[in-house]
């Protein structure tokens, strides 16, 4: 089965290393908590809020062991007024034997506010 796994995290500053590290930490957690390997991943969609433009988060993902060939696309979130700032969101599409209720969606930092109902 192919499932979508959501994740989001906030960064303190619009800085290259912060964006890369936050992306790496988020994707490592998504993979570990859902017991998936890079070879299981169909693709990754990463979005950032408009206030994050110092770096491509995909470069942070590429720094992870085994993630070189994982297809990835970056985009900007819709600039909704009052939306959470400095936020990186991911949608990981992966092959897994888990059913939808077993998928662990990952939220770090202030992004925990986005979907408190999904945090386990």
TrEMBL record:
SUPFAM superfamilies: YjgF-like (SSF55298). Keywords: Amino-acid biosynthesis, Aromatic amino acid biosynthesis, Isomerase. Pfam families: CM_1. Signal peptide: none annotated. InterPro entries: Chorismate_mutase_AroH, RutC-like_sf. It catalyses: chorismate = prephenate. Coiled coil: none annotated. Its EC number is 5.4.99.5. It comes from the Bacteria. This is chorismate mutase. It comes from Salinibacillus aidingensis. The gene is aroH.
């Amino acid at each position: 089965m192919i499932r979508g796994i959501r994740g989001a995290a906030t960064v303190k500053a619009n800085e290259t290393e912060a964006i890369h590290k936050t992306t790496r930490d988020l994707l490592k957690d998504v993979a570990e908590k859902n017991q998936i390997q890079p070879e299981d991943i169909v693709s990754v969609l990463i979005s950032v809020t408009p206030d994050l433009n110092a770096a491509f988060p995909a470069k942070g993902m590429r720094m992870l062991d085994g993630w070189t060939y994982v297809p990835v696309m970056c985009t900007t979130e819709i600039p909704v007024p009052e939306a959470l700032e400095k936020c990186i969101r991911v949608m990981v599409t992966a092959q897994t034997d888990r059913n939808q209720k077993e998928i662990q969606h990952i939220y770090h930092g202030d992004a925990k506010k986005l979907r408190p109902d999904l945090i386990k």
